[in-house]
Amino acid sequence: MELHTLKPAKNSVKQNTRLGRGQGSGKGGSASRGTKGAKSRSGYKSKRGFEGGQLPLQRRLPIVGFKNPNRVSYKPINLNIIQELVEKTQLTSITPEVLWEHGLVNKRHKYKILANGDLKTKLEITAHAFSDSAVAAIEKLGGKVNILNAHA
Question: Could you tell me the pTM of the whole model?
Answer without folding.
Answer: 0.57
